[in-house]
Amino acid sequence: MNITELSLRIASATVYKGVINEPVVRQICEYVRLKAAGAGKEEIVSAAAAVFCSALEFDKSSDICGAFVSAAETDENPVSRALAFGEKLQDDIKSAALFDLETLVELMHLCPEKSDLPAGAPVWTSEDKKHISADTESFFNYLKGYYEKNGYGIVSRHSAFKYEGGLIPAVNTDKIRLASLKSYDAERAVVKENTEAFVKGLPAQNVLLYGDRGTGKSATIHALLNEYSGRGLRMIELAKNNLSGLSSLIGILSRYPNRFIIYIDDLSLSGDEAVLSDLKAVLEGSLEKRPDNILVYATSNRRHLVKEKSTSELSKETNDADAREEMLSLSDRFGLTVTFFNPNLKVYREIVAFLAKENGINIDEQTLFAAADRFAVRRGVRSPRTAQQFIEYAAGRINLGLDL
Q: Distance (Å, rounded) from C-alpha 246 to C-alpha 239?
């Protein structure tokens, strides 16, 4: 395929037009356009340099082929959607997709030797991508397998998101695993079994984890994501002050085949009727059924999700009884409610001993427990969070050669 024909094929892309518009691919398409138009050598070399600059910004490497593959993996188009849902492609749509993929393969096969780029140009195609870009059929089969396993679009690439009017990938997520969490085994087993059923496509419940602060409710949810993200689970954190966006978020997520948990941390409502109604409708009771691929997991430090108020404040609210009833109705609509209460002294010390071993702290138990108890008294609470904070405190002092 000559450079002029390649330039025309780029302009006529349909299904994978979105890939053409990705920064790295767009730069190389501009390079091809200049070559086809007979531009001067300096202009062409400058365009080639821009390709590598874009690739370096993309993933800190000059693997041009990798940038193409990544763009095709996350592209949202009729083919990626259909294949992600396991649907059969119409012949005309598949033909259009193969036409575009053939164009992309030709672009991936450009290299210094074939395109008159300056000698010594950076790597164009890495060894691990060569089998993907070998030909159109190989590329299509790779993408088909990718969509079937991971879904399509941005949710195929990331497992954790924040919702702020759109899905924003979360960076530096907590890597904690369930095996790293001590105590509350029975409570976590209930939540894990529910999540296991959900991931398998079986009936599952919305979950409310409530109880004392610092008992590992949020850590449990973070660990569940790490446990199941490899099996297609995705988690979207929705800030409690953004609950009005819940319906819009569900509309977005319903377009994807993946399993989603909407995570609301420290849920505590003050009686905002609009917010309460939105959340209740999602949990249960709306004419529009909640999509089967979406659950809500929430944590709260109060069983009935009611903000603490003084007696004088409550007396000023003429509809306080109605507000309380509304909030009780909300909490009752979680299919599962799991309690996390502060541990007694024995369990607290077991958590301290477990964390000390995990962190390589080797001192006699009497000294360890005495220091941990004093730390809890100063903090005003015995909890798994207090135990973790004590271990961090103890590790610092020990490394400095100081007494606990």
A: 10
Closest CA to 284 of 206, 336, 208: 206
pLDDT digits (tens, 9 = 90+) for 298-357: 998 865 455 555 444 545 554 556 555 655 666 777 889 999 999 999 999 999 999 999
Kindly state whether residues 271 and 145 are assigned to the same domain: no
Count of Cβ atoms closer than 10 Å to residue 336 Cβ: 16
Distance between CA atoms of residues 154 and 39, nearest Å: 37
CATH number at residue 220: 3.40.50.300
- What integer pLDDT is reported at residue 53 of this predicted model? 81
CA angle 383/389/394 to nearest 5° reads 125
Q: DSSP secondary structure string, 253-269?
A: HTTSSSEEEEEE-S--B
Same domain, 108 and 250: no
The whole-number pLDDT of residue 200 equals 97
For tokens 């100081």, the residue is 402
- Backbone phi, then psi, for 259, in 5-degree steps? -95, 130
Domain containing 206 equals 169-340
Q: What DSSP designation does 301 have?
A: S
**Is there a single domain that holds both residue 186 and residue 129?**
no
* Local structure of 85: helix, strand or coil: coil
Q: Is residue 161 in some structural domain?
A: no
What is the reported pLDDT for 365? Answer: 93
Nearest to 296 by CA among 337, 241, 328, 256: 337
**pLDDT at 376 > cutoff 90:** yes
How many Å apart are CA 68 and CA 390, to the nearest integer?
48
The tokens describing 111, both together, are 């290299």
373/316 Cα distance (integer angstroms)? 42
> Quick one: which H or E segment has residue 296?
strand 294-300
Residue 327: predicted pLDDT: 58
pLDDT tens for 127-148 read 555 667 678 999 999 999 999 9
Structure token digits, residue 368: 């360890």
SS3 at position 221: helix
Q: Which of 325, 340, 355 is the last residue of a domain?
A: 340
> pLDDT by residue (tens digit) across 271-304?
556 666 777 777 775 656 778 999 999 998 865 4
Q: Do residue 102 and residue 173 come from a single domain?
A: no
- Determine the angle formed by the axes of helices 91-108 and 3-11, rounding to 10 degrees: 140
